[in-house]
Automatic annotation (TrEMBL):
Main location: endoplasmic reticulum
Membrane topology recorded in Swiss-Prot or TrEMBL: Single-pass membrane protein
Keyword vocabulary terms for this entry: Electron transport, Endoplasmic reticulum, Heme, Iron, Membrane, Metal-binding, Microsome, Transmembrane, Transport
Protein name, as recorded: Cytochrome b5
Annotated source species: Eschrichtius robustus
Gene3D superfamilies membership: Cytochrome b5-like heme/steroid binding domain (3.10.120.10)
Any one GO MF annotation of this record: heme binding
Pfam family name, one: Cyt-b5
InterPro entries: Cyt_B5-like_heme/steroid-bd, Cyt_B5-like_heme/steroid_sf, Cyt_B5_heme-BS, Cytochrome_b5
Domain of life: Eukaryota
Residues spanning the signal sequence: none
Length: 72
């Protein structure tokens, strides 16, 4: 069972993630996981600009500083 989970895990380099820092492709890191938030820009409660500012990098600290709910 654990072997199946390992096969499904995709790893990215920071260099790969940093390429996704524009309005058509927004990737960021939260708690060591990579999220593609490109389609979430318009739905984000604080607006898409907040996500654009964090795109291509680790947004964990800023995410925690805002005090998101457990649902977020």
């Amino acid at each position: 069972m654990a072997e199946e989970a390992d096969k499904a895990t995709k790893y990215y380099t920071l260099e790969e993630i940093q390429k996704h820092n524009h309005s058509k492709s927004i990737w960021l890191i939260l708690h060591y996981k990579v999220y593609n938030l490109s389609k979430f820009l318009e739905e984000h409660p604080a607006g898409g600009e907040v996500l654009r500012e964090q795109a291509g990098g680790d947004a964990t600290e800023n995410f925690e500083d805002v005090g998101h709910s457990t649902h977020a």
